[in-house]
Design brief:
By secondary structure, the protein is an alpha/beta fold. The chain has 2 domains: 188 residues, Rossmann fold; 66 residues, no CATH class. The strands form 2 sheets. Strands 5-4-3-6-7-10-8 form a 7-stranded mixed β-sheet. The longest helix is centred in the first third of the chain and has 17 residues.
C-alpha cells in the first residue's frame, strides 16, 4: 500500500502482516468471493494476500508499477484506471461477479481520500459491503463511528456504514517518511438504512455544517435573516447543541419535525 503523491511505501513487516491478516480474516469470515486492491504500488501487501481469492483485481492509475513488478500471477487482473473514473460495479457485472461478495482494500491517496469515500459511501444503496482502507490518521479519527466530534464527512459516511478504527500506523513505517501519521479503518455497510430521510439529511448538513462552531438555534436564526432559503425548525431542546454533539435520535427528531411541517 502506498500514497500516490510522494509515493510513500509501507516497509514495516509487522504492519504489513497485521493488514494482511485482517484482510484474510474478513474475506473468509464474510464468505467473500472477490478481492479488489486499490493502489497496490510495489505490491508489499499484494504479495501477502494474493492467495486469498481466485478473483483478484488490482486497480492503479500508474502503469510504471505494474510494468516493474517481479511477482505476477495469471489469476490476477491488472486494471489501469483512475478509481474515481472506474465503474467498479459494472466491471464486476460484466464478469458475472457480485459486489455483495467483494472485499475492497487499499491505501487511499491523501489528496483524494474524501472524493473516493464520497463516491462509494454517500448512499446506503451501495452494493459493496466490506472495505479496509489505509487513510491519514486525522481523517480516520474524524470519521470513525465512535468519534466524539461529528464532522460533515463523518455524518455522511456513518449514514450508510459502521466505520471502525483498527490501528494507527506511524510515519516511520513508510519510506520516504511522510509528514503525517496513517491508520487502518474498516467500513461495513449497515444491514438497515439509518432511520432519517436521506435527502433532508443532506439538505440539513449543507445548511448547518459550514457553521459547525455555532449552536443549531443560532445557525437557524442566521440562515433565516441572511437568506431566502427555508431553514430547519430546531426543537427547543436541541437549540443549544452544536452539530458535532447530535445523536442519530436528535437528527431523527429534527428531520421528522421538518418533514411534518412541509407536509402541512
Amino acid at each position: 500500500m502506498w500514497t500516490y503523491l510522494g509515493q510513500n511505501f509501507l516497509i514495516d513487516a509487522k504492519v504489513r502482516t497485521y493488514i494482511a491478516d485482517k484482510i484474510s480474516a474478513l474475506y473468509k469470515n464474510c464468505w467473500c468471493e472477490v478481492l479488489i486492491e486499490i493502489g497496490p504500488g510495489k505490491g508489499s501487501i499484494t504479495k501477502l494476500i494474493h492467495a486469498i481469492s481466485g478473483n483478484f483485481f488490482l486497480i492503479d492509475k500508474d502503469p510504471t508499477f505494474f510494468d516493474s513488478w517481479e511477482l505476477k500471477i495469471e489469476k490476477w487482473e491488472f486494471i489501469l484506471s483512475d478509481i474515481l473514473e472506474l465503474d467498479v460495479e459494472q466491471m464486476l457485472e460484466e464478469k458475472k461477479l457480485s459486489p455483495w461478495k467483494t472485499l475492497v482494500v487499499g491505501n487511499l491517496p491523501y489528496y483524494i481520500t474524501s472524493p473516493i469515500l464520497r463516491k462509494f459511501f454517500w448512499s446506503w444503496k451501495q452494493e459493496f459491503v466490506w472495505w479496509i482502507f489505509m487513510v491519514q490518521d486525522e481523517v480516520g479519527q474524524k470519521i470513525r463511528s465512535d468519534a466524539k466530534k461529528k464532522s460533515y464527512l463523518r455524518w455522511l459516511l456513518n449514514y450508510a456504514c459502521d466505520v471502525t478504527y483498527l490501528k494507527g500506523v506511524p510515519a516511520k513505517c513508510f519510506k520516504p517518511i511522510p509528514k503525517v501519521k496513517s491508520c487502518l479503518i474498516q467500513f461495513t455497510i449497515k444491514n438497515q438504512a439509518t432511520s432519517v430521510n436521506r435527502n433532508k439529511f443532506i439538505e440539513f448538513l449543507e445548511l448547518f455544517a459550514p457553521f459547525s462552531r455555532k449552536t443549531l438555534g443560532a445557525i437557524s436564526k442566521m440562515i433565516k435573516k441572511k437568506s431566502d432559503k427555508i431553514s430547519f425548525e430546531i426543537p427547543i431542546s436541541l437549540s443549544s447543541k452544536r452539530l458535532e454533539e447530535l445523536t442519530w435520535a436528535d437528527l431523527t427528531l429534527i428531520l421528522s419535525k421538518n418533514l411534518q411541517s412541509l407536509a402541512n
